[in-house]
Amino acid sequence: MNESDRTSTALMTDMYEYTMLDAALQDGTANRRSVFEVYTRHLPEGRRYGVVAGTGRILDAIEHFRPTEEELRFLSDRRIVSPATIKWLENFRFTGTIRGYREGEIFFPDSPVLQVEGGFGECTLLETIILSILNYDSAVASAASRMVSAAKGRPCMDMGARRANECAAVAAARAAVVGGFQGTSNLLAAQRYGFKAIGTAAHSFTLLHDKERDAFVAQINALGRNTTLLTDTYSIDEAVRTAVEVAGPDLGGVRIDSGDLGSLAQRVRHQLDALGATKATITVTNDLDEYAIASLQTAPVDSYGVGTMLVTGSGSPTCAMVYKLTERENSSGAMQAVAKKSVGKASVPGRKLAYRSYEYNLANAEHVISGTEEALAGFNPEPDWRDLLVTYVDHGSINEEYQGGQAVLKARDHRARALDELPIGALSLMRGEPILPTTIETI
């Protein structure tokens, strides 16, 4: 199934998006030009940076945000909106403009990750779907990025499908690749985005057979000598010996899923080499996170399979992103900057530009410029500033460059480049403040 095969996303929202639309249509404010901004007030405690992920999925969701007859009947039967609003929704499609950080970009507190511009009614309907995607996907990508950094070039693979909601598992696999992972065990994600699919056998396959040798023979007969055999169902020493006896020196690899992974990997490496399987690889799994992966840097491990901690954002399953109105058309037809003044939740008024500045080819600050459309059009950044915003949707026209499997791989490459531009402290797993300061200037 492709993204285009999905059904409507029009009810993947909170009820108050529709009740606000209904009230705004009734008082004549629904079509007021508005600018909404997505940002986070803070990173998860101690994190040095975040990774934007999910914008490609947002574009897919917007394409399908068109209420069906059944959905309109539900809204009508529940009296969630009035008959006039049902009429307004019959041919709904988003006609506004969306700009933001490109997928795979690094973000910090107050980064204008996404800006949605259009009529108030059409923009408010998108709030929940945008936040639900960006918050989760960016959390997973941010955790994945830390794991990939800790792995020091050894491949990390997503094995989290059984630890998440079935739909979240596909989203997590996609976000993990944005964060630098090389493949997934989730076949739907592999099919949908063209990812490398991984997986051979579980402990149950070994337990199914009368002897471990029988299980290994069956797997090799089915998958070839280059397969990876799971070796910790019983005795790892005996399993490795049996694996080489059955597959010979061309054994593809072994997986270890329990115990002291570092010590076991060292022992298994020596055993494999002594038995002549010098090219056989070692994959480790078992509740890995970035800290566990970092602790294995000196162990002879070739790849990591990560599950629970990946799909839960390594303890931070959301980025606390919010969707706030920052500018809107007033009753006289002029655009007016607006902001919340709530204690602890004040927002910065006005539409935004965003740049990153550099010194000696290393990023040293994030610059957020706020102002009117006219003022921002005339703003001239410093020569060494990199523009962080791209246009995803232009007056309803979606830029397909940011959709599909190739866009995910490009986002993964962009993350790697953007991370290389940051001070080395960004790679530290020690708790600390955001690696770059963010300055906000109103012009």
UniProtKB/TrEMBL annotation:
<dbReference type="GO" id="GO:0005829">
    <property type="term" value="C:cytosol"/>
</dbReference>
<dbReference type="InterPro" id="IPR013785">
    <property type="entry name" value="Aldolase_TIM"/>
</dbReference>
<dbReference type="InterPro" id="IPR007229">
    <property type="entry name" value="Nic_PRibTrfase-Fam"/>
</dbReference>
<dbReference type="InterPro" id="IPR040727">
    <property type="entry name" value="NAPRTase_N"/>
</dbReference>
<keyword id="KW-0662">Pyridine nucleotide biosynthesis</keyword>
<keyword id="KW-0436">Ligase</keyword>
<feature type="domain" description="Nicotinate/nicotinamide phosphoribosyltransferase">
    <location>
        <begin position="156"/>
        <end position="347"/>
    </location>
</feature>
<dbReference type="InterPro" id="IPR006405">
    <property type="entry name" value="Nic_PRibTrfase_pncB"/>
</dbReference>
<keyword id="KW-0597">Phosphoprotein</keyword>
<dbReference type="GO" id="GO:0034355">
    <property type="term" value="P:NAD+ biosynthetic process via the salvage pathway"/>
</dbReference>
<dbReference type="InterPro" id="IPR041525">
    <property type="entry name" value="N/Namide_PRibTrfase"/>
</dbReference>
<feature type="domain" description="Nicotinate phosphoribosyltransferase N-terminal">
    <location>
        <begin position="11"/>
        <end position="135"/>
    </location>
</feature>
<dbReference type="GO" id="GO:0016757">
    <property type="term" value="F:glycosyltransferase activity"/>
</dbReference>
<protein>
    <recommendedName>
        <fullName>Nicotinate phosphoribosyltransferase</fullName>
        <ecNumber>6.3.4.21</ecNumber>
    </recommendedName>
</protein>
<dbReference type="Pfam" id="PF17767">
    <property type="entry name" value="NAPRTase_N"/>
</dbReference>
<dbReference type="GO" id="GO:0004516">
    <property type="term" value="F:nicotinate phosphoribosyltransferase activity"/>
</dbReference>
<dbReference type="InterPro" id="IPR036068">
    <property type="entry name" value="Nicotinate_pribotase-like_C"/>
</dbReference>
<comment type="similarity">
    <text>Belongs to the NAPRTase family.</text>
</comment>
<dbReference type="Pfam" id="PF04095">
    <property type="entry name" value="NAPRTase"/>
</dbReference>
<keyword id="KW-0808">Transferase</keyword>
<keyword id="KW-0328">Glycosyltransferase</keyword>
<comment type="pathway">
    <text>Cofactor biosynthesis; NAD(+) biosynthesis; nicotinate D-ribonucleotide from nicotinate: step 1/1.</text>
</comment>
<comment type="function">
    <text>Catalyzes the first step in the biosynthesis of NAD from nicotinic acid, the ATP-dependent synthesis of beta-nicotinate D-ribonucleotide from nicotinate and 5-phospho-D-ribose 1-phosphate.</text>
</comment>
